[in-house]
Design goal:
By secondary structure, the chain is an alpha/beta fold. The chain has a single domain, classed as P-loop containing nucleotide triphosphate hydrolases (Rossmann fold, 3-Layer(aba) Sandwich), CATH 3.40.50.300. 58% of the residues lie in helices and 13% in strands. An 8-stranded mixed β-sheet has the order 3-4-2-5-1-6-7-8, with helices on both faces. Helix 12 links the parallel strand 6 and strand 7. Helix 9 packs across helix 11. This is Anion-transporting ArsA/GET3 family ATPase. It comes from Nonomuraea soli. InterPro entries: ArsA/GET3_ATPase-like, ATPase_ArsA/GET3, P-loop_NTPase. GO terms for molecular function: ATP binding; ATP hydrolysis activity.
Length: 377
C-alpha cells in the first residue's frame, strides 16, 4: 500500500501568474522531456505564453512536438484564441557562447576571441560549458520579458543539477593560478609587464613553449587576456540567474519512473535542491502501471489460471489471468519503491502519471500526458 503523500497540483502551478520558471530535472529515460513539453503545452492552452528550453542534446523535445528540428532560437509551436502561445528551443551551447562574446566585447576583441583556436575548443567541448550556457540562456529568456513562463528541460542524470554550480565553477576557472599567471603580464602594462613576464613567467613559459610550441602558447595567452573582461560580466549574470532560481516564482519539478534507481535519483535531487534552498514544487512519477481490475489480486489471478490450465479449459482466459497477475506484481513493486520515497520525504507533493500504450510524438500525445498529470491532482 502506497503511503499517502501530498498531491502535486499541476494546474495550480501553471495558472499562477507569479510562476515564471519551471525546471524539470531527473535521471535519464524517465520521460522528463515529455513532461516538460506537456507542461508547456498545457500552460499555453490555459493562456500562458510559454517557452520550453531543452538542455538535453538529444532531439526528443522536437520529436514530441512533431517537429523535425529545434535550434537556439525559440520557435513557435502553437497559439490559441485565449492568448496562449507555446514556443520551443534546444540549447546550442557554442552559438550561445558566440552571442555572449558578440554582445559584450568590442568588434576587434570579439574577432580575436571567436577566431582563437582555444576559444573554438572551449565553446564546443570544455567541461561545464553546457551548464554555463544553460544559465546564460535562461537569464536571456527571463530578461527579454517575451514569455511569462519558461520551462527548462535539464540534461539526464545527476549532471542535470550541474548548472547550479556554474557561477562557483566559473569563478574557480577565472581565479585559478594558471589563468592569473597568463593574464598578469597584460594587466601589469608597460615595462613592469616585461619585467613580470621575465621574472614570474619566464621559466614556466620556457617549459610550455618547448612542450606546446610558441604559437600555441601565444594563442592561449591572447585568448585568456581577451576573454577576461567578457567572463567577468558573465559571472555576474550567472550569479543573478542562480538567485533567480532560488526566488519565489521558480518551481522545480523532479521527474522519475517508479523504479528503484530512478526513485533513488529523485531522492538525491530533492535533497540537493533542499541544500541549495531551491523551491521544490513536487515529484512527477511517470509510467505507473495500474489495472482496471485492481480488486483481483495477483495471487487469486494466478490460482484461477492454474485451475483452468489443470482442467485444460479456457486457455485464452488463463493467459489473460496470468498477464493480469504479472501486471499486479509489477504495480506492487512500483508501489513499494514509491512508498520508500514518500517515507523518506513525506512532505513532497506527488503526481502519478499512468503508463501509456505508445510513445508521445505529437501535440495530442502531449495533451494526453498533461491531462493525466492534472487528473492526478
Amino acid at each position: 500500500m502506497i503511503r499517502k503523500a501530498p498531491v502535486l497540483d499541476v494546474d495550480a502551478i501553471l495558472d499562477d501568474r507569479a510562476t515564471r520558471i519551471i525546471v524539470c530535472c531527473g535521471s535519464g529515460g524517465v520521460g522528463k522531456t515529455t513532461t516538460a513539453a506537456a507542461l508547456g503545452l498545457r500552460a499555453a492552452e490555459r493562456g500562458r505564453c510559454a517557452v520550453v528550453l531543452t538542455v538535453d542534446p538529444a532531439r526528443r523535445l522536437a520529436q514530441s512536438m512533431g517537429l523535425t528540428e529545434l535550434d537556439n532560437t525559440p520557435r513557435e509551436v502553437a497559439s490559441y484564441d485565449n492568448g496562449g502561445k507555446l514556443f520551443a528551443m534546444m540549447l546550442d551551447m557554442k552559438r550561445t557562447f558566440d552571442e555572449i562574446i558578440e554582445a559584450h566585447a568590442d568588434p576587434e576583441r570579439a574577432r580575436q576571441i571567436l577566431t582563437n583556436p582555444f576559444y573554438q575548443s572551449l565553446s564546443s567541448s570544455f567541461s561545464g560549458t553546457q551548464e554555463y550556457m544553460a544559465m546564460e540562456k535562461l537569464g536571456q529568456l527571463r530578461r527579454s520579458g517575451e514569455w511569462d513562463l519558461i520551462i527548462v528541460d535539464t540534461p539526464p542524470s545527476r549532471s542535470a543539477l550541474d548548472f547550479l554550480d556554474a557561477p562557483e565553477r566559473l569563478g574557480r576557472f577565472l581565479d585559478g593560478r594558471f589563468i592569473r599567471l597568463l593574464t598578469a603580464p597584460a594587466k601589469a602594462g608597460g615595462r613592469s609587464a616585461f619585467k613580470l613576464l621575465n621574472a614570474g613567467f619566464g621559466l614556466v613559459a620556457g617549459a610550455m613553449t618547448k612542450l606546446l610550441g610558441a604559437q600555441v602558447l601565444k594563442d592561449l595567452q591572447t585568448f585568456v587576456s581577451a576573454l577576461d573582461a567578457v567572463f567577468g560580466g558573465f559571472r555576474q549574470r550567472a550569479e543573478m540567474t542562480y538567485k533567480l532560481l532560488q526566488a519565489q516564482g521558480t518551481a522545480f519539478i523532479v521527474v522519475a519512473a517508479p523504479e528503484r534507481d530512478a526513485m533513488r535519483e529523485a531522492a538525491y535531487f530533492v535533497e540537493r535542491l533542499a541544500e541549495e534552498r531551491m523551491p521544490l514544487a513536487g515529484l512527477v512519477v511517470n509510467r505507473v502501471h495500474t489495472s482496471p481490475v485492481s480488486g483481483l489480486s495477483a495471487a487469486r489471478s494466478t490460482a484461477a489460471a492454474e485451475e483452468l490450465e489443470a482442467r485444460g479449459e479456457h486457455e485464452l482466459t488463463a493467459a489473460v489471468l496470468r498477464l493480469h497477475a504479472g501486471r499486479m506484481q509489477l504495480a506492487a513493486r512500483e508501489g513499494r519503491e514509491q512508498d520508500h520515497f514518500v517515507s523518506a520525504h513525506p512532505t513532497v507533493p506527488v503526481a502519478q502519471v499512468p503508463a501509456m500504450s505508445q510513445d508521445v510524438h505529437d501535440l495530442d500525445g502531449l495533451r494526453a500526458i498533461g491531462d493525466l498529470m492534472a487528473k492526478a491532482s
